[in-house]
Amino acid sequence: MPRTSKPASARKAKRKPRPDPKARAAEIYDRLAAAYPDAHTALDFKTPFQLLIATILSAQCTDKRVNLVTPALFKRYPTPKALANANVEELEEMIKSTGFFRNKAKSLIGMAAAVDAAHAGVIPDEMESLVKLPGVGRKTANVVLGNAYDKNEGVVVDTHVGRVSKRLALTKQTDPVKVEQDLMKLFPRERWTMLSHLLIEHGRRICEARRPKCEICFLNDICPSSLV
Q: pTM value?
């Protein structure tokens, strides 16, 4: 017996084609850039050396706290050689309020000694050389390269970037390295450094960890995690 087709009303509606991931990423970036035209790193610095110090101190610490500590630190240790020869106890006391001060002091002195000995006192401008320095991982290296040297070698993934990226479905990952890889595939290289600043700004102002302000978010119409 021949099969009868179901009436049109009973058929499943065809799914709308998914938007191109890169086109969607571009739309998100453009909206973020329009909303936060002055987005930049919150760490105060004038030289690559100062930014590297500040970034090492920023681990498990707010940028605001770091900025309270660094002026005196930069004045006391203006060069890698000076920092390499720092008295450990004195340095620890100066950075104590940033937390994990013993490990950070060890990293700072080790980093400065390596820069002075292997790089003639100049902070390297290459990823390979930076990550060989004590206390410097890929995230820290990305901060220095992108903000001090204007080199887009990767995307800085902190807690804000990781959270906002996942909520926006730019990644399904939670590991920072994997999140970075996903973002690098979606966005052109020239946008990598600024992308991090924009996502951080959005995470601080609207897409907060505990209670995102979806009702006022300018991305709520294209965000799968929107609560409105």
A: 0.89
